[in-house]
Amino acid sequence: MAAAGAASAELVIGWCIFGLLLLAILAFCWIYVRKYQSQRESEVVSTITAIFSLAIALITSALLPVDIFLVSYMKNQNGTFKDWANANVSRQIEDTVLYGYYTLYSVILFCVFFWIPFVYFYYEEKDDDDTSKCTQIKTALKYTLGFAVICALLLLVGAFVPLNVPNNKNSTEWEKVKFLFEELGSSHGLAALSFSISSLTLIGMLAAITYTAYGMSALPLNLIKGTRSTAYERLENTEDIEEVEQHIQTIKSKSKDGRPLPARDKRALKQFEERLRTLKKRERHLEFIENSWWTKFCGALRPLKIIWGIFFILVALLFVISLFLSNLDKALHSAGIDSGFIIFGANLSNPLNMLLPLLQTVFPLDYILITIIIMYFIFTSMAGIRNIGIWFFWIRLYKIRRGRTRPQALLFLCMILLLIVLHTSYMIYSLAPQYVMYGSQNYLIETNVTSDNRKGNSTLFVPKRCDADAPEDQCTVTRTYLFLHKFWFFSAAYYFGNWAFLGVFLIGLIVSCCKGKKSVIEGVDEDSDISDDEPSVYSV
Predict the structure, then answer these.
(1) Does residue 168 come out as left (phi exceeding 0), alpha (psi in the -120 to 50 range) or beta?
(2) Which of 220, 325, 361, 538 is the least buried, fewest Cβ under 10 Å from its Cβ?
(3) Number of domains comprising the chain
(4) Distances in whole angstroms, Cα of residue 360 to Cα of each of 43, 316, 374, 419, 441
(5) 434-460 pLDDT, tens per residue?
C-alpha cells in the first residue's frame, strides 16, 4: 500500500509538472504571436486561432517524452513490473496516452482541414470592403468544404485499407466487405486516424525538408555572425542618399530651359525618387535603432548569443550525424522498401543512440535530451520559415516580419508548424528506434549457469533491454509507435525524405556560411507598407 501510495504521489507530481508545462506553452504562444502579428491588421479571431494552433503543435510534441516516460515508469531496472503496475493499471495508462493522441490528432485534423482554412478564407474575403459578413462566411465555408471533403476521403481510405488479408482466398465479396468492417471495429478507428495523420505527416516531411533543414543551419550561424554595425550602415545609407540626390538633380537639370523630359528620363526620375524615399526611411529607422536602449542591451548579450549559436550548431551536428548513420543502417540492414525500411535495434551505432542509454541511468536526463531535440526542431523550423518566407512553388505568398505579419501569414505559419510537429515523432524514431518503442524498459530472460561447487546447471534470470524479440506481456510498446508504422509505404517515403533532409541541410549550411551579416533593419527595402511611426519593431 505504501509503495502504491508513493507511486500515485509521483504520478500526481508528474501530471502537475505537465500542467505547468501547458501553461508555459500557452504563455510562449501568446508572446510569439503578438510579437510577429501586424499591429494595424490584428484580428481577435485570427490571433486566437494562431495561438491555439501553435499551442496544439507544441503540446503534441511534448506528448512523445511523456509517452516514453510512462511505459518506462511501469517497470523496475531489474526487468520486473512495479507493485502497482498490474495488467489493469498498465492498460489504463496505455489507454490514457492513446486517448491523448486521439484527442490531439483529431484537433490537428480539425485545425488543418476546417478551422484554419475557414479563418483564412474569411479574412481573404474581408479585404474586399463591399463584402458583407454573411457573404464572407458563405464564401469561406464554400472553400473550407473542399478541405473537409479531403479529410473525409483520407479517413475513409485509412479505415478500409486492409492491413491484413482474409485467410480464405475463396471468400465472397460480401465476406470480404464484412472482414473490412470487423477489422475497422477491432482497431477502434486507429487505422483511419493513422492514415490521415500519416498523410499530413508526409506533407510535414516536405515542410521540414524545406524549412527545418535550412533553419538548423541558418539559426546558429546567424547567432554567431550577428548583425551589421548600425553606425556603418548609417554611413553607407548617407552616401547612397547623396548619390541618388545627385542623379535626381542631374535629370531635373535637363528640363530647366522648359523642355519636357523624355519618357526614359521620367521613368528614371520616378525610380530615383522612390529609391530616395526608401533610403530616408532607412535613415530614420537606423537613427532610432542606434539610439535605442534595446540595441545597447543586445550588444551586451553578444557573447551569450555566440555561446547559444555554438550550442545550437553542436546539437544540429549531433542530429545530422545520427540521422545519417541511422539511415545508412536502414539501407544496409533493413528488409527493404516493401517493409518500409523498418529495422529493429541498431547495427550501426549513432551518437544519439549511444547517448540515450547512458543518460537513462540518471533520471530524467534522457527525457530532457529528447525534449531539447524536439524543441530545437520546432525553433529551427520557426527560424527557417522566418528566413525563407511562405512560398507556393516559385510564388512568394507572405513574409514573416516582426510586428508586420498579416493574419493570413500567421495562420499559414501555424499550419506549417502543425505539419512539421507531426513529422518530428518519426524523425526522433529514426534516430533512436528502440528507445522510442520501449523507453528504458528491461525484461527478464533465463540463463543457464554452470556451478563449480554443484554438479549440473542452475537457472538465473537476468535483465535485458526490451527489443523486438521481447515477449508482448513483458514489454509495453509506446502508443507513438502504433501511429508511426501502420502503413509501410509511408515509412518508405519517410526514409527517402530523411536523405533529402540531409542534402538540404548541407546546402543550407553552405549558403548560410557564404551569406554576409544581416542588416539591423532587414526588410525595410522590401516592405512597401512600412510606416514611420513604429521603427522600433526592427531593432535587434
Answers:
(1) beta
(2) 361
(3) 2
(4) 46, 22, 18, 30, 10
(5) 777 877 777 777 776 665 555 556 667
